[in-house]
Amino acid sequence: MRIAVASALRSYTGNREHVAASGATVGELLDSLDASYPGIRFRIVDEQERIRVHIRIFVNRELADLRRRVAEDDDVQILCALSGG
Amino acid sequence: MATRRRPTSRTGDRASRARRLATQPRIVLLVATRKGAFFYHANAARTRWRVDGPHFFGQIVNHVMLDPRDRRTLLAAVRPGQLGPTIYRSVDLGASWQEAKQPPAFHKAREGELALAVNYTFHLTPGLASEPGVWYGAVSPPALFRSADGGVTWDGVDGWNEHPMRFKWCLPEDQTPDGSILHSVLVDPRDPAHLYVAASSGGSFESTDRGASWRPLNEAVEANFSPDSYPEYGQDPHCMALHPLRPDRLYQQNHCGIYRLDRPATRWERIGRNMPAQIGDIGFGIVLHPRDPDTAWVFPMDGTSVWPRTSIDGKPALYCTRDAGASWQRHDKGLPREQAWYTVKRQAFCADEADPVGIYFGTTGGELWMSPNEGRSFRQIAGHLPHVYAVVAATLP
Known about the structure:
The complex is a heterodimer. Chain A has 2 helices and 5 strands. Chain A is α+β, with helices and mostly antiparallel strands. Chain A starts with a strand and ends in a 5-residue tail after the last strand. Chain B is about 5% helix and about 35% strand. Chain B has 3 helices and 27 strands. Chain B has a 4-stranded antiparallel β-sheet with strand order 3-2-1-27, with no helix packed on it. A 4-stranded antiparallel β-sheet of chain B has the order 4-5-6-7, with no helix packed on it. The radius of gyration of chain B is 21 Å and the shape is globular. At the A-B interface, helix 2 of A face loops of B.
């Protein structure tokens, strides 16, 4: 599955905006991403399995949580809000 | 006939100076800021500084420490503004960095427990030479982590993090601007099992079993924001330091004054009472002379009314004691004479190991200052940096 990654996370993906991952849920996609790009999952999800405050994950442009099921042709975006100065 | 030239006193002075400089340590300042880290390498005379950086550009860096056991390994506590906190490690003085495989993180909360997540690592402390690879990391919300492999993986120190009194000692979140923190992890150089930590707020605590158990160490330390002004715990130490050559001597700059404690006593003495009354004894950091346990420096802050936390009257100055706090002398030569509203955070104030000792501080306005002569005069090393969170003077091989 093709996933769009926010710019703040691209230090993990070799600066690639789109990366491949597999899984039946958003949580499994992140596990797959972490296997390919170690450390990226902890930037997205904290140790209590909560998506971090400034991160939003969209599946087909709908806000998703870690349990959201995904299919091969879904459009998955991991976005990062910017705040502060 | 050739005549032998007698050395003049001037050439003799030069030779003497050259010999002295040859024995001086190589100093690098590890400057952590809100937008990255900058390393300033000094020449032997500490008159010129070469900057290396920014490292982690755009990311919040709370602390960078050099491992004194090998003098090559650096650890950096980093938090991209929007993402979670992590630790980076370099074994080549910052030429390259590797992220920790397992950064500090709490256990997954059990049913009914408060689900805590590390907000950022605030403070890094290397273990003793007898424990190679050991590091401590103090985080916000206040918790303690330990690495036994040079900072690659980190585990919680359960004796603190799971202590039944922990949420009474210090709140998990007290809504201070940067959140409540654990800081000032001190390892007794005679005994790696003997630890001190300070929590802001929460107080100072001691462990003699490598962090398995802890007890408060706050006797006679004021907490004027508490219904009981001298409680067992709940004080707000801003910075605590232990003298490496006299490890039974502790100093702390507290929200409510400057204190000294000589163990095994447990009652702190408010040595800040000896500061000039118009200056007071409020501040963030306290710096110890590396070879003289009686000498310390503080940077007083305005702690009146709404706590502006700036230099007093806009006139920055350090105060130095050379008699363990019995008296204090003002040092401000070379610093701005007026309208300089500096705030110097608790980890942005330090000393090097040279002789005479160099004193350094960074400001929230992005200035980096030094004194090459133990405070007798100051000069600016850099300006226009981001908000400075920490300055560490490290000694290179």
